[in-house]
Design brief:
Length: about 130
């Protein structure tokens, strides 16, 4: 998983709406109620698409250059970036069962303190890995 930037074509529509397409990525498109929403939606669909590529071990196409993208009147190109690791972290809530061992005395103390073992392990792993 990594950080990426791909060019997106923003097309103004009626009533301030925007359509967004990614010429390098088939089926990767979205829209927004305004430019801010379109950018936010573009970041999300890009992360979703590239995360899917990574999971399926597909080769990611190289991002096109601004100058290689044909535009219609009113269209403009902007690079959109995403972090597929962050996307996975935000959107994957599936729990994975782990079996582990701790010394009996430590188990007894933790149970007396009413600690949730899963929560403590998650917090410790996040701290150790430096992730939020």
């Amino acid at each position: 998983m990594a950080k990426y930037a791909y060019p997106a074509v923003f097309t103004p529509e009626e009533n301030g709406l925007f359509s967004v397409t990614f010429p390098d990525l088939e089926g990767c498109y979205t829209c927004g109620d305004n430019i801010e929403d379109a950018i936010r939606m573009a970041e999300d669909v890009l992360a979703f698409t590239l995360y899917d590529y990574e999971q399926e071990r597909k080769n990611l196409p190289a991002p096109s250059s601004f100058t290689d993208i044909p535009l219609k009147e009113g269209d403009f190109v902007n690079f959109v970036r995403c972090d597929t690791q962050e996307y996975h972290r935000r959107n994957s809530t599936r729990a994975v069962k782990k079996t582990l061992s701790v010394p009996e005395w430590l188990n007894d103390e933790a149970e007396k303190a009413g600690l949730n073992f899963s929560q403590v392990l998650q917090e410790a792993l996040k701290e150790k890995l430096g992730v939020a």
